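Shipment paperwork, digital attachment
Item: protein structure file
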Amino acid sequence: MNAMTATSATTTGSMDLGMIKRLVLKDWYFLRVPIIAYLAAGALALALVSHAGEGTFFAGSILLITVLITIGIHLAMATVVEERKNQTLAFVMSLPVSPKEYTTAKILANLLIFLLPWLALLVGSFAVIAGNAALPDGLIPFTAIVLLEIFASSFLILSVALVSESQNWTIGAIVFGNLFFQGFLYYVSHIPSIAQTINGPRIVWSSAAVTLLLGEIATIALMVGLTFWLQARKTDFL
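Attachment content:
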């Protein structure tokens, strides 16, 4: 009897919240040091952005984006791909845990861990822009759109890692996400209603900006649902 069969009785029943909590805390424990390091790097990025110089602003922006993208990649690789590679997944699935509980725990752990630095850097970015007279407040909507795209891209990587359990597929998702991000930056910065206000003194939530934000949120929700659906169709996790 494989682990999938052994836990099939609990798959359709109510989930064990205690087990989910333990699996989430496990991932938090093993990633606590890297997250602190990422927060420190994010703080450095915001410090660079807050300086009036064009060079430091550019360097800080690149560092901020790099930190967030790296966190998403690190989380998916460490909590999913490495578990499969190091045979940790076989041990986890031998516990009294259903595939649905495992999937829920992985999604919750990754979202909560990613949200900590992501929210901190999002709020920090808004504060830096609003508090620095040299930076136009029109940057705020653009910043929100860009950082939410990074959030969605990180979840795509996690979703592919969970469903495929393959390092190659996950790397493919990383490459796709990074290429898409470059095109997305170009596209958003050339939308007339955004391009005309990005360097302005006022925060303007144009219909295009709001539509993009809602589209990103809907995409994330769709990926969450699709991940659970694909995981539920699996017949073997080992």
